[in-house]
Amino acid sequence: xxxxxxxxxxxxxxxxxxxxxSTPLAEGAIVLDExxxxxxxxxxxxxxxxxxxxxxxxxxxxxxxxxxxxADTAERYSAADTxxxxxxxxxxxxxxxxxxxxxxLMTVVANEIDRQDTIGGACSKExxxxxxxxxxxxxxGCRENFLAEGTRxxxxxxxxxxxxxxxMNVPVESDGSxxxxxxxxxxxxxxxxxxxxxxxxxxxxxxxxxNPCNDFNCTPLRMIVTRP
Length: 228
Prior knowledge:
Blueprint: E1 29-36, E2 41-46, E3 51-56, E4 63-69, E5 72-76, H1 79-86, E6 96-98, E7 104-111, H2 125-132, H3 142-150, E8 164-166, E9 189-195, E10 199-205, E11 221-227
Antiparallel strand pairs: 1-11, 2-10, 3-9, 3-11, 4-5, 4-8, 4-10, 6-7, 7-9
């Protein structure tokens, strides 16, 4: 028996929809303002100096994120380099998101969440079946969203690396173990990232319904790019 996965098309929400119309965290002209439907992927080019504000519209909705050099996608976000350079596992205001070459890709310039996750990884059909049972195989995960959206930019499975998880709560316990627990976000909470070079940002509006990372209720995201 063949089981297929359907990834929702985008965009789903039109401007002026019922989504929370929070303002961006950075001043400047708005050059992009798009809504991301629950469970759907998104991607966009953010030019050097521009600021991307990600809005957690419904609250406690994980936004899995990959970042690439727009001119050379072989250079991409590296969780290991980011953690090593700052000496901290959490992403907070001021964190420089570094590439696999140790170079700055984006900087967190504003953040309304105490800490952001860069070690929890992305869900997938395979991990769902291992964690929650074979009956979940039909559910697509963030990996499938990344693969579907990545094809728009010539990316393949070889380009998927450890990702950021905006608005997801993954505490590191005293014994070094990790947990996925109720989020610390709320409707309208935001994080803002300044591009240090032209970057391609790929986001999966996480479709996970089997653990608390999305409060068991997948909700929309909003992506706003401002230019100083």
